[in-house]
Structure formats: structure tokens, C-alpha cells
Design brief:
The chain is mainly β and 1069 residues long. The protein is 10% helix and 48% strand. A hairpin with a 2-residue loop joins strand 33 and strand 34.
């Protein structure tokens, strides 16, 4: 009844709100003031703007102040704009190009003429756009000339000064997690709202792009837009719009290709005796087309595109090719019949393991082979769009998009082997529908309405349903069904309704509107769904001597018989806002407004009466089954634009305000999946060889009662006062246009956290302290809390808020376009970002567990993982004229350089350092030279080796007597050059018909020197010491014993450090 009531309320609110803004923008606009030669405003002047390619016409009439506004216009152009007034010569402005989401200012001074002939003016278009905050726009030319192999939108938008590409494939803005970004295509949600994908986009788990680059018309990036219509992010927002049909039939066919011959040999310095090796066999192919056409000239248009991508490559690690022949196991492997398999992992050993698995775990016919496993990715992307000019006053758009993709996931490495059929296939299917109606109600009232629906289906498929085997024996071996993939699926449905009403009164433009979202998520996530057996050696595996058994299943008595149960979460966010854009003078504009968002969960997790009556729940006020209270989050904002000089060549802009984002809904869904009710756990430690071996654990273990099904549960709760992320952001920008087209831009950006996520384990109780040195040397600087864990629950992770965190950046950019076809740009950004928890995982327990800290339940404010202090970028692009023989060449060279990946200095905990029940998450204490000798060491040389390492590390040596800060370390500065070459052969120059051959080089400097352009692999921590044991003083306080661990240097990424090339061709008609 409670859930039904919430759904009814949500639907009612949605209907009411839909009478009144778009979260992001999909169109452009034109505005200005018309006056006579005496600078008196002309009321009643007619303004007609025509989009030349489609013949689409937009009209307006100036008001008493001589001002006009035309909203809802197609982005791009070119446009011709005619302004006429009785008794005066009309003005015709040619080659006007509009940018997505940026109003174009076009003022006109009219003169009396007896001849009344039109005066033709060519638009300069330099300082005419009207953005107030930091961001960037990328038109079709930039998209086409940017070097890329993956054909990702991120390859283009990474040249936003505040943007940084992450090692995991995502993109970060202003030093924040990519999960806090918004990505919309034609106003429809394209980012992964649930939050599973490292790239942050729908289909990102398969590596597929949410849309083909050839279907995109323009991309806008905003980081600090002070227009209250833009919301849904606390990082940055990417708004892309697709192409539209025109009055001319146009289109293209294209294909891209690369294989192992287009990849360089081994990069980086070589050890003695090593040789540079070619990359293993791989193949990548892309085919696609676009077509746009009129259905009814000037009235009705269609655009469609489709793209097919497939890539295959072998996993380079295999026993067959000797990948592991030099890895010595902890002991000689001897089968139960006495046969020795040696002490090195090889193909014979792998074959014996699969036979043992099939004979003992109820699985036959695994079809296992030990050759190099072929890994395949495939993606199909198609869209169709209709544009209808109902009249000069009403424009309608309808778009449908479909994506179907899969990717084989195979986790093997130099010290980890995953049997071929233990891999899984990640698949995605996404359907998107967008409808938009833009209406000029009167000359003073404009309305924009949009509705979208996005349906995402993610799932994992496995070769067979068999028990998971995990072996650690100086090499990690995975056999059977992948631990996290036996029962793993996610469905999401997203519906949005948005509406803007703009009213033009004098020198004011008043906008009121609403943006409303409703989400439905269904998530199946049962780790170890066929049971998971852990062994400490390969010998133990053959002897069935189990170290740990785990199994998670859904209790059919609570799920209607479903043992593969998934939780359903309904959520909504409703937004209202009002804004005034006031232009008291031609050179000054002030925008101020207020936005109110009300997020809410529409259903509740199942209550857990036993937990809710526990001391943990009562003392912390955290209960299973409760959801955050629906509260209104206000976002006031104000921004300005001021042309300092009368020539309008110097612009000062900026503003301040609050921004409300979304929370990755998987963090909320954790509380629905982990109630301790529907999903149950079996955990048996060191059961030995008497425990049953089975791939049907529900019947053979749970029902038969061999082991208790009441394993320690992990509980997730939601704080009743939890609020969605909010950040206060201030931006000040300076733009100056120098002579001969040079333009300089400066942006200063500061962000302060108002609300962000914070994870806390309530199952911990502080019982004492751990002395990093010893009890005698203990002081406030070298003592950390020591905890004990509740015996009833594995963990109780609460999702809360923190207001700690901030970031800042300063960026400068110089650019120029030369009339002979050369474009240049160079920029530099400096900044830092700080956080308490970056939320790098989709699992609440992992977000708490792997947040490196001194006090695990009260983490310190420190560097964000996404902090990159330095960024350099440059673009040099040249396009020749079209020569008489129809040839034209484009060459674009880009440079992207910056600070390396952040990492933490931590300890390897063979003994739990702080009693939190987890290992590897404790930050390193950096002792003084005197304290090093006072610490307890396992080896006689450990102290000297540790002292030597501290002295040779810049950060550690300058922070002695302190705990190391989270992500204090930073990787090596990286330099990467990319190159794009396109050779055009025009066979119909008048209509732009041509054949184009394309070559894209990534990391091209490595082509000339194998030690240039190196990429370093992600390493989030470097373990310096091992905690071998703890000694208690009997009062709950602990003193550790250490051994020194030689930390590994940051390793090179073997693939990305090599130069890579891709060939393509495109037929344009």
C-alpha cells in the first residue's frame, strides 16, 4: 500500500510539473537589438532567420526596446538573417553559424535609404556566443579531424580544459568521478545512470560507444553553466545533438580497419637479453552509413545512420604458449596417485586441473582448451530521426536509437590465469526514444517540450553453470564460473518529461520550467551463485582440501521460489525553476535564477526485523527498510557577461551557484539487494576435505543441511537524511580577441562540496589503538584507532553524506584560425581536487573497504583519485584548398600531456593492521629516522631497507612523522601525440561529393622512438611494508611487527604504450 501510494504521488507530481525545463539543451538561439543611426531602438522590426540547408524559417518581431529573441533553432548553419523595418534599408546577414546551447548575439543598426535595397553583411561570429561559465563546444569539423581509433566522443571532449581522460576509459571534469557526469544525446540520458560502467555511458560495460561519431552534429561541454535549466551533474555535462535531414539528399558510407600490423613492437626500455616483440594477432573492423533527405521540401526531413563494429584478439596469456612457465609455485604439485606435475604452472597441469574439476564438481563437457583464447567485441548502433517544420512557429523532432553490443571478458595476466571457459560475455541492449516540440506561442512567448524514454538491458552470460574455483599459489588460478557472473543482470528504464516557457519583456527574458525523471532498476547480483571454493595451493585443489567455501543465493521462501532473485528500485527526481536574463545595456547581461529539485525513492527495501531490533541499528539510527526522506534541494545561481570595451573584444564573465547532481543508483540499490532477507549467504572457513563438492549448492548444501545457510550477512542501509550530491561552484572567465584573429581565454574555477557520499561500517566498534611505532613512542601523530568487528554481521555499510571536499583549477588557452586553412590551439590547466571518498566501486562494501585511510570509519580529507595537477594540450590542424584536380588534404596533429595517475602508500596486511576485518586498506605511517630503529622488524635488514626507500622518495622524505595521505603519490608525467590525415578526392565539387582516405595514428611519437609516449598502468596503491603480526598489551592496544616489501615500480601499459594506426575510407554524397 505504501509503495502504491508513492507511485501515485509521483505520477501526479509528474503530470503537474509537466505543464511548466530541460535538464540539458538540444537547440540554439538568436537574439539582439535593432536600433537606428541615432541609437534609438526600433520597435516592430521584422527578423527572419533561414537555415539554408533545410530551408527552415524562424521569425521574430522586435519589442519596444528594439530587442528580439528566437529560441529552438537548429544548431549549426549556415543561416541567413534578414532584418527589415519600414522606411529603412533591410540588412542581410550571411554565414551565421549557431553553437549548441549558446545564444548568438546579432545586433543591427539600420539606416534610412531612398532605394531601400538590402545591405549584405558577412557575420564575423567571433565573440557572438553567450556562454557565462567554463566549458567548450565542438562542431562537426572538430569531430571529423580529431585523431581517434576508438571513435569515442571522449576523444573529442578531452580537449576541454577542465577534462581528464581516466585510465579506466571514463572522463573526469573538475577532478571528480565520472559517475557524477551527465551525458545526453538530443536531451535523452546516455550516461550509465545506474553506475556500473567505468566509461560512464550506456553500454559502457561492453566498451561500445553510445552513438556513432558520424551521427553527431555538435557536442557541448559545460562545467559551470549558470543557466538553471542545466542540472543533473556535479562533475561536467556532455550534450550532443544528432544530425538532421535537409533539402538535399546527402549521406556517406565509411569503413575503418586495423590489425596487428598497425601496432608497434614492445615499447619502453628493454632489460638485457629482451627483444621487441610484435603484438599478437588482432583485427578490428567498422562499417557504417548515414543518409539525410527531404520527405517534403522545407517541411519534413529524415536522417538515419547505422554502424557495425567487430574486433577480435587473443588473450596473450596461456599455458600453451608458456606464459607461466617461469612462475615457480610454492611447492611441487603431486597428484593423489603420486604423479608429479612439477613446480611450474604449465599446460599439463592445467589439463589435469580441468579433468579433476569435471570429475569432482558435477560438470562434464566444459570444452576447455588451453590455446590462446579469442576475445571478441561486437556492437551495432542505429538511429533514425524525423524533423517536421509544422509551421514557422512550431517545429517537431522524433528520434529512435538502438544499440546491441557484447564483449568477451577474460581476466588473465602475468600472474593470473583464468581458464578459457571461465570467462563471461557482457552484453547490452539499449533503446532510446526522444520527442521534442518547440513552439513560438506569440512574439513574446516561446515553449520547448521534450519527452524521452531509455531502456537498458545489461547481462552476463557464462559458458556453463559450475562452481567457482579460486586458487592462490604464487599465481592466481580461476576455474569454473566467474565469481561475480553466475547471476548478474541489470535492467533500467528511464523516463523524462521536460518543458520550458520563455517570456520576453523589455530587456528581460524570463524562463520558467520543469525537468522530471522517473527510474526503474532491476538488479540481479549474487556472487558465487554456483558456490565458490577457495584453495591456498594447487595441491590442496587436487586433494580437495578447501580453505574457504562461499555461496550466495536467494531464499525462495521470500522470493516466490526464485533462487536468482534481483531487487527492484523505483526512483524519481522532480525539478522546478525560474530564471531572469536581464540585459540593461548592450554590453552587460545578468542571469539569475533559482532551481528546486526533489529526489525520492518510490519503493522501500524489505524490512529486516531482526537487524532493526539490534544494538547496531538502534544506536546508529540506521534501519533496513527505510529510505531517505524526500527533501527539496535548492540551487540558486547567478552569472554575468560584461564586454569591457565598446569594440566588444574584451569579455569578463562568470558566476556562482549550487549544482545538484544524481547519485549512481547502484549505491541506493545496494540497500535493496543487501537487506539480509531475500539474499542469504553460506560461509564456511577451512572445512577441509570432508565438505561436499558440488555445482548445485542449493540442493546439495542448503536443503540437505550439510552447512548452515545462516552465514554472516552484509547489510546495507540508507540514512534517512541522505541527500543527493550538491556542489557550490564559482567561475571567473576572461576572453580577449587580439588583432588578426588571435583569441585568449582564461578560466578560474572553484568547487566546494555541499553534499557528497560517505560510507561507514557500523559493525565496527573502536576498542583501542594501534601504535605505528610502539607504545613508548606513541603520540598523537603515530597512533591509529583499533576496531573489533561484530560477530553477527560481516559488515553493515551505511550510505551517508559529507560536506568535506573541494577543488580548484586555473586554465589558459590561446587559439587562432588563419584564412589559408590553419587552426592552432594551445592550453594549460593547473588544479587540485580533494575528497573523503571518491566512490570508485559499484558495491557499497568496496567503497568503504578500499578507501585507503588511517581511521577506516572516519577517512581524512585528502587528494582525490581524479586529481591531476597539470594538463597540457595543443592542436595544429591544416586543410588545403580544393585544388583544380579535386584534391584536398587535412592534417591534424594533437598533443595531450599531463600528470600521471594518483596512488596511495599502503601496507600489505598479512595480519589486519587496525582490526577492521579488511586487509590492504591501511595507509602507511612515515616514521622519523629515529622511529625506524624503534619499530619491530621481522628481518635484520628490513629497517635499513625501509629507511633507504623513504630517503629516496620525494613525498615520503618530506612527510616524516606523519601518516601518508590518501593518493599522495603521483605517476610519471605522460606525453602523447596523435595524428589525423585525410585525403579527399572530389568527383562532384559543387555538391560536396568525394572519396576520402583516412589515417589515424595514436601515440605517434612512439613510432620514432620506442621509449617515447609511454603510458603507465593504473596502480592505485604501492605497498611498502607487510604487517606480519600484532602484539596486544591486554588493554585492546596493538603494536605491529613489520617486514619490508620492495615496492613495484609503476608498470608500463604494454598496449597503449605502443603506437597504433587505423585506416579508413568514406564516400560522401
Amino acid at each position: 500500500m505504501k509503495q502504491s501510494f508513492k507511485l501515485i504521488v509521483a505520477a501526479t507530481i509528474g503530470v503537474l510539473f509537466s505543464l511548466a525545463a530541460s535538464a540539458q539543451v538540444t537547440t540554439s538561439s538568436l537574439n539582439g537589438q535593432v536600433s537606428d543611426e541615432a541609437d534609438e531602438p526600433l520597435a516592430g522590426a521584422a527578423v527572419i532567420a533561414v537555415h539554408i540547408p533545410s530551408g527552415t524559417q524562424y521569425t521574430a518581431v522586435t519589442n519596444l526596446e528594439g530587442r528580439y529573441v528566437i529560441n529552438g533553432m537548429r544548431s549549426g548553419g549556415p543561416y541567413s538573417v534578414q532584418i527589415s523595418y519600414i522606411g529603412m534599408s533591410s540588412l542581410d546577414f550571411k554565414d551565421v553559424t549557431l553553437k549548441l546551447g549558446e545564444p548568438y548575439e546579432l545586433d543591427a543598426v539600420m539606416s534610412v535609404s531612398n532605394e531601400l535595397e538590402a545591405v549584405v553583411v558577412v557575420s564575423e561570429g567571433s565573440f557572438n556566443s553567450s556562454k557565462t561559465g567554463a566549458g567548450a563546444s565542438f562542431g562537426r569539423k572538430t569531430v571529423e579531424t580529431t585523431p581517434t581509433i576508438d571513435r569515442s566522443v571522449y576523444d573529442v571532449v578531452k580537449y576541454t580544459p577542465q577534462a581528464t581522460l581516466n585510465k579506466n576509459g571514463g572522463i573526469s571534469f573538475a577532478g571528480t568521478n565520472n559517475r557524477y557526469n551527465s551525458f545526453q544525446i538530443d536531451g535523452a540520458v546516455a550516461n550509465d545512470a545506474f553506475g556500473l560502467s567505468s566509461t560512464g555511458t550506456n553500454g559502457g560495460q561492453t566498451g561500445a560507444n553510445p552513438i556513432s561519431l558520424d551521427a553527431i552534429e555538435e557536442i557541448q561541454v559545460v562545467v559551470a553553466p549558470f543557466d538553471v535549466r542545466q542540472s543533473g551533474f556535479t562533475g561536467g555535462a556532455i550534450n550532443a545533438i544528432t544530425k538532421s535531414g535537409t533539402n538535399t539528399v546527402t549521406g556517406s558510407f565509411y569503413s575503418y580497419f586495423n590489425n596487428q600490423d598497425f601496432i608497434g613492437t614492445t615499447a619502453g626500455p628493454l632489460e638485457q637479453g629482451e627483444t621487441r616483440e610484435k603484438y599478437d594477432t588482432q583485427l578490428s573492423q567498422t562499417y557504417g552509413f548515414t543518409v539525410g533527405a527531404p520527405i517534403v521540401k522545407d517541411k519534413l526531413f529524415i536522417f538515419a545512420s547505422a554502424e557495425y563494429y567487430k574486433a577480435s584478439s587473443p588473450n596473450v596469456y596461456s599455458p600453451e604458449n608458456g606464459s607461466y612457465e617461469n612462475i615457480e609455485l610454492n611447492e611441487e604439485v603431486i597428484l593423489p596417485d603420486g604423479t608429479s606435475l612439477g613446480k611450474y604452472f604449465n599446460e599439463d597441469m592445467a589439463e589435469a586441473m580441468i579433468r579433476h574439476y569435471e570429475e569432482n564438481y558435477g560438470i562434464s563437457g566444459t570444452g576447455e582448451s588451453f590455446s590462446q583464447h579469442q576475445v571478441t567485441d561486437r556492437a551495432v548502433n542505429a538511429m533514425a530521426r524525423i524533423d517536421w517544420n509544422i509551421s514557422d512557429a512550431h517545429k517537431f523532432m522524433l528520434r529512435y536509437q538502438f544499440m546491441d553490443a557484447y564483449a568477451d571478458q577474460y581476466d588473465s595476466g602475468s600472474y593470473e590465469y583464468t581458464f578459457n571457459n571461465s570467462s563471461y560475455r557482457q552484453s547490452n541492449r539499449t533503446n532510446t526514444l526522444v520527442a521534442e516540440l518547440n513552439s513560438r506561442i506569440t512574439d513574446e512567448v516561446f515553449n520547448e517540450f521534450r519527452a524521452t524514454a531509455v531502456f537498458v538491458r545489461d547481462k552476463r552470460s557464462v559458458a556453463y553453470g559450475g562452481a567457482n574455483i579460486y586458487i592462490s599459489d604464487n599465481i592466481t588460478v580461476n576455474l569454473g564460473t566467474d565469481y561475480s557472473s553466475g547471476a548478474n543482470a541489470m535492467h533500467s528504464d528511464t523516463y523524462t518529461i521536460t518543458d520550458n516557457v520563455s517570456i520576453y519583456k523589455g530587456n528581460h527574458t524570463i524562463t520558467a520550467g520543469t525537468h522530471n525523471e522517473i527510474f526503474r532498476f532491476y538488479n540481479v547480483f549474487l556472487q558465487g551463485a554456483y558456490g565458490s571454493y577457495g584453495f591456498t595451493s594447487i595441491n590442496d585443489f587436487f586433494n580437495n582440501d578447501i580453505n574457504q567455501y562461499g555461496y550466495r543465493y536467494a531464499d525462495p521462501s521470500l522470493t516466490g521460489g526464485d533462487t536468482r532473485w534481483g531487487a527492484t528500485t523505483w526512483a524519481a527526481q522532480f525539478g522546478l525553476y525560474v530564471q531572469d536574463e536581464w540585459k540593461p545595456t548592450r554590453n552587460f547581461t545578468l542571469t539569475y535564477g533559482l532551481r528546486a529539485d526533489m529526489p525520492m525513492l518510490l519503493n522501500s527495501p524489505t524490512e529486516n526485523p531482526e537487524f532493526n531490533a539490534s544494538d547496531i541499528a538502534i544506536s546508529n539510527g540506521q534501519y533496513v527498510g527505510t529510505t531517505p526522506k524526500a527533501s527539496v534541494l535548492f540551487s540558486p545561481r547567478a552569472g554575468f557577461r560584461w564586454y569591457v570595451d565598446s569594440a566588444r573584444r574584451i569579455l569578463l564573465r562568470g558566476g556562482a551557484g549550487l549544482f545538484t547532481g544524481r547519485v549512481p543508483f547502484v549505491w541506493l540499490s545496494n540497500a535493496y539487494n543487501n537487506t539480509g532477507m531475500e539474499a542469504k549467504s553460506v560461509t564456511v572457513n577451512q572445512p577441509g576435505s570432508s565438505f561436499p563438492l558440488t555445482s548445485d549448492p542449493y540442493n546439495d548444501i542448503v536443503v540437505s543441511g550439510i552447512a548452515s545457510a545462516g552465514g554472516k550477512a552484509t547489510i546495507n542501509t540508507l540514512s534517512e537524511d541522505f541527500k543527493y550530491p550538491q556542489v557550490f561552484r564559482v567561475n571567473l572567465g576572461y576572453e580577449q580577441e587580439f588583432g588578426k584573429g588571435w583569441k585568449f581565454t582564461f578560466d578560474g574555477l572553484y568547487s566546494k562540496t555541499f553534499n557528497n557520499v560517505f560510507f561507514q561500517n557500523l559493525a565496527l566498534t573502536r576498542t583501542g589503538a594501534v601504535y605505528a611505532v610502539n607504545a613508548d613512542a606513541a603520540n598523537a601523530s603515530n597512533v591509529a584507532p583499533y576496531y573489533s568487528t561484530d560477530n553477527t554481521y560481516q559488515a553493515v555499510v551505511a550510505l551517508k553524506n559529507t560536506n568535506k571536499g573541494y577543488s580548484y583549477s586555473f586554465s589558459g588557452k590561446l587559439e587562432k584560425h588563419f584564412d589559408f586553412g590553419l587552426d592552432i590551439m594551445a592550453g594549460y590547466t593547473f588544479g587540485h581536487s580533494y575528497s573523503v571518498n571518491d566512490g570508485t566501486s559499484s558495491v557499497a562494501l568496496s567503497n568503504w573497504q578500499y578507501n585507503y585511510s588511517v581511521d577506516t570509519n572516519s577517512p581524512e580529507l585528502s587528494h582525490s583519485l581524479f586529481d591531476r595537477p597539470h594538463k597540457l594540450m595543443a592542436v595544429l590542424s591544416y586543410t588545403t584548398p580544393v585544388y583544380a584536380n579535386g584534391l584536398q588534404t587535412t592534417i591534424s596533429l594533437t598533443y595531450d600531456g599531463g600528470s600521471g595517475q594518483r596512488y596511495s602508500y599502503t601496507m600489505n596486511e598479512s595480519t589486519d593492521f587496525n582490526g577492521d576485518g579488511r586487509t590492504g586498506n591501511s595507509l602507511l605511517y612515515i616514521p622519523t629516522k629515529e622511529e625506524v630503529s624503534m619499530m619491530s622488524w621481522a628481518g635484520q635488514d628490513d629497517a635499513a631497507l625501509f629507511e633507504q626507500f623513504i630517503s629516496g622518495d620525494k613525498y615520503l622524505s618530506s612527510h616524516r612523522g606523519q601518516w601518508s595521505e590518501r593518493y599522495a603519490g603521483i605517476g610519471k608525467f605522460e606525453h602523447h601525440f596523435d595524428l589525423h590525415i585525410a585525403q579527399d578526392f572530389y568527383f562532384d565539387r559543387k555538391h560536396g561529393r568525394k572519396l576520402q582516405f583516412i589515417v589515424d595514428f595514436l601515440n605517434i611519437s612512439n613510432l620514432f622512438n620506442r621509449e617515447w609516449g609511454l603510458y603507465y598502468a593504473s596502480a592505485y596503491n604501492r605497498q611498502i611494508l607487510t604487517v606480519t603480526s600484532l602484539t596486544s598489551d591486554g588493554s585492546g592496544n596493538m603494536t605491529p611487527r613489520y617486514s619490508y616489501v620492495e615496492p613495484q615500480d609503476l608498470s608500463l601499459d604494454d598496449f597503449y604504450s605502443r603506437w597504433r594506426c587505423q585506416l579508413g575510407f568514406r564516400l560522401t554524397f
